[in-house]
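Example: NADH dehydrogenase.
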Amino acid sequence: MTDNGKRILVVGAGFAGMWSALGAARLLDIANKSGERIEVVLIAPEPMLHVRPRLHESNPLGMKAPLLPLFEATGIRFIQGSVTGIRAAAREVEAVGADGNTFTVRYDKLVLASGSSLFRPPVPGLATAAFSIDQIEDAALLEAHVGKLADQPDTPARNTVVVVGGGFTGIEIATELPARLRSVLGSTASVNVIVIEQADAVGPDLGLGPRPVIEQALTELGITLRLGTAVSTIGTDGIVTSTGERIDAKTVIWTAGMRANALTKKLDAERDRLGRLHVDADLRVLGTEDIFAAGDVAFAATDDAGNHALMSCQHAMNMGRFAGHNVAADLVGAALLPYRQPVYVTCLDLGSWGAVFTEGWDRQIKLVGPEAKALKRQICTQWIYPPAADREAAFAAADPAVTVVA
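Written out as structure tokens, the predicted fold is:
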């Protein structure tokens, strides 16, 4: 890029980051400002989309999709690095490369789409004795551990798994475990999966709608609930709960909540309780001129009824399309499009039992069991993956008018 060129920088290669870059490249292609050089650059640790919604499944190391062919087809430049700081006044970010060296990247407009990570409070033993499925590497460690359980003596502790957190992720990994454990320990093995949830109901954020189906699936899969309970300590041989109960278990999985990436703290801007940046209807970070946010780092209204985007690929994908369009439009003087995503669905995997699919913020059940499972499989293996490495098709998919309900 020449010295007088302009740059849109996207931080993050997750769902929001990938679609932000594509959305920006699409709008620039439409604007076609002759004589003005504007490049779209995406910076991330690797040019891969990590398919986090599938990390409760087996083979987590395979849950990646390459992005370089797509970027090359659409004119997006990739920089390998991990962003560690944002200097808004100087319009630049600081990053660390794969070689460990620090470098800076300047920008004219920035989209922060650095995602989220698992919330890990200071529970004794959490950092050393618990597993998670937060990132691909975490899920791979858990899978390897479960695969070696058969090498241990046949005891109740070996056959017991405690899942801490009865939200979306906790339910999906818990319902996956009975079949996975029996595939390792034997089809007749007496396995014991226990879900610990602080709230007085499972899936507290999912509401009343799907709860009877979730409870039915857990019961039929033989999964035990401990509601209104927290974990006090975690060890390699089990946990102690807030009620003083000791549960012997060789496997403890922590799924209790998410927080926005720490880069949000690098901006002098308002954040919500999950660390997400408050944004306006155009997804511009409040109090800034040149910084937009999308995905798990953005606290964004989805409609005029008071609903806000969740930390999900469903919302991240559409927010990315809008953020990319708007950041480019802001640079070239085109019309910005207010982000709106009134259509909201959930499709919760319930392991070998099936799944449950709901529509609307009141989560009205539309499909259950095998039918919902087939839809879940289609969503997770087709709908959420990157578009083909074809310029025209990719730009068509990056149109903010495209509604994603995955």
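DSSP finds nine helices and 24 strands in the chain.
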